[in-house]
From TrEMBL:
Limits of the Anticodon-binding domain: 2-68
Protein name: AA_TRNA_LIGASE_II domain-containing protein
Protein keywords: Ligase
InterPro entries the UniProt entry points to: Anticodon-bd, Anticodon-bd_dom_sf
A GO MF label: ligase activity
Organism expressing this protein natively: Haematococcus lacustris (Green alga)
């Protein structure tokens, strides 16, 4: 992700539920969880702070594309990427365990 200009923080050493709780308390807008299954499948499990919504497993390339698109239009990471073009969202920082540059 850093290759694409997305500032990301990697956390580990705790249970996944504790890491998710920590990200939620920090109000991290986009959290990607990578467990054993995600590594095998080549996906990222995505959670959004807004609405405490779990998007689910997405290919890494799709997550990167959605984050970059959201930054480009100063919108939100949406479960439906086409909705970003239809909605005018207020500017806000997006995070993957941190913030997007």
């Amino acid at each position: 992700m850093r290759r694409f200009g997305i500032r990301a923080e990697i956390n580990g050493g705790a249970s996944i539920s504790k890491l998710v709780r920590t990200a939620t308390k920090a109000k991290t807008p986009v959290t990607c969880i990578i467990g054993k299954q995600e590594v095998l499948d080549g996906t990222l499990s995505v959670r959004l702070y807004q609405g405490n919504k779990e998007i689910g497993a997405l290919p890494q390339s799709e997550v990167i594309a959605r984050v970059l698109q959201a930054v480009a239009i100063k919108g939100d990471f949406k479960s439906d990427p086409a909705s970003q073009a239809r909605e005018a969202a207020p500017a806000r920082a997006l995070h993957l365990e941190a913030s997007v540059e």
